Amino acid sequence: MRVLIAVTHLLGAGHLTRVAALARAFARKGHETTLVSGGSPARLSDLENVSFVQLPSVRTIGTDFKTLLGEDFEPVDAAYLERRRTLLLDTLKTVRPEILITELFPFGRRVLADEFSALLDAARGANPRPLVLCSIRDILVPSSKASRIEGTHERVLRDYDAVLVHGDPELVPLEASWSVDDRIRSLIRYTGYVDENEGPVPEAQRHGIVVSGGSSAASLPLYQAAVAAAREISDRPWHILIGRGVAETDFLTLRESAPAHVIVERARLDFRSLLAAAELSVSQAGYNTIVDLLRCRVRSVLVPFEAGHETEQRLRSERLAALGLAEIVSEADLSPQNLADAIRRGLARTPSLPPPISTDGARQSVAVAESLMRFSPVLHQSIDWSPLDQALNRAKDQDCPVRFWWRDDDAVADTPQLGRLLGLARRYDAGIGLAVIPEGMEASLAARLTEEPSAFALVHGWSHANHAPAGEKKAEFGAHRSPDSMAAQAEKALHAARELLGPRLLPVFVPPWNRISRDLVPLLPRSGFRGLSTFTDRKAAYPAEGIVQINTHVDPIDWHGTRSLADPALIVASLAGAIERRVAGHADRDEPIGFLTHHLIHDDVIWSLCERLIAHLAARGIRFLCPDVCFGLETRSHLRSNGI
In CATH, what class is 209-348? Predict the structure, then answer.
């Protein structure tokens, strides 16, 4: 595929470094990749097979992001910006990308909004239209004006197919810095952190202190404090690496004033090797620096850049400090003594292993883009939600409360697919019932459920084995075995699941293939069950004394055809029909409408539809109920947490 990536860095070169790694990853997969940079020319690692286009550059001084300076360090005029825009659009026309990626915009770079808007307008008018992605780091700096955030979301919804978040929600979720609109959640794809240096981390005996800063002059106060602090801590060698943005006169002053045990030199390409051999790192908390620290597993003292009310590095620092991985010295408190004290604390602290944070963001970004392209015709088709909305409006007019719940079948272990499912539920504050197969359960499933307060397990048969004769529909608990033997096996399944899952298990029976013998249902209470769930509208809320039945009604999978996504129009119609039946009295108004999924076999098209549906309902204030609430099985702790 042809890929075009557009970036403009204004202060340091971190944005350019990150997208350069992204561009190399696309090129390594054989994609014809072009990187367009509008920031100051910077030294980059080998771009390999990536084509590079440099626009007339712009930059800023400090954090004044409203004033753009040109190559002569004078404020740019309209003609200068027009030359940039013309070259950018000419590049788009020449490359004819199938994938267009804008770095940071529209979440930032508002000062260049006209330029990016022209690019997006031209891409939208192209035939065929390219897949349009936004590339953002883990932490954003939001506007203080709600209208601007709303405008960003509107732009994303209009022009973008997905937002690549180059971070890991286990360390910093996007919501920690940006108020994510429910409407754009379905477009967000976490890729993991993008590591510009993907090679293995060299092993070395750790000794000494390494001080580093970004590529801008903003690190000069840190370097000055470090040289002074080194006079107090003289029992270890120091290595202070000065960024290229620091003026030569300042660099020479630092080098000449350094004690004998301190080496002061310009930043080096083998920085990763130096860091891997250090006892402790002193640095700011930029994106690429944190990736270096996580990869090298080195203790650190962080002095986050906070000028101009910047919050990005402070938030990232606090996340690492909370994990026991760093000491923090605020920029306002930076002094040689405070820095020396923090270094001593860091050296005295027992090293902590970082959590398993993904740093494979470049390759994962390529994989996400390839997947989106593969399913592009279906993923990006417009879905007509009006039948669902009209049914919900009629239910409201008729004072017919409509509730939804979510059941997912066949869980046995904590797999990546289960993680994606539970992450989706968590993002939308949705309850979910996991129908687990007792015979195949693994301990990892129990460990994962302890972290998910809105997820509960249900008993999905015993082994999901078919006992129906050849030629009949599959069933594990159908009319092919004696009711007593099936009741005994169901009881065995309940005890086995409860032993592993404890209070995260609800005594609800979910027969595989949604088929169950009528003669077995009255025996379920004796086996310890209090609930039953199959498919289609229930005929009775209580099919047997002591058993409440809550079914599912809509399944997004085309089981008898592609085994991928069913026609979205049919899915919407099914949901609308379930609502209309309740309004008309043809179904039990009190039964929540159940959405049924199977996380282990979802492809990206199914995942996308699920999220778009959940996001659409969430935008109307509708959340999926917790299954313990559906079946009237709330625990005391649950009741207390809800003020009951």
Answer: alpha beta
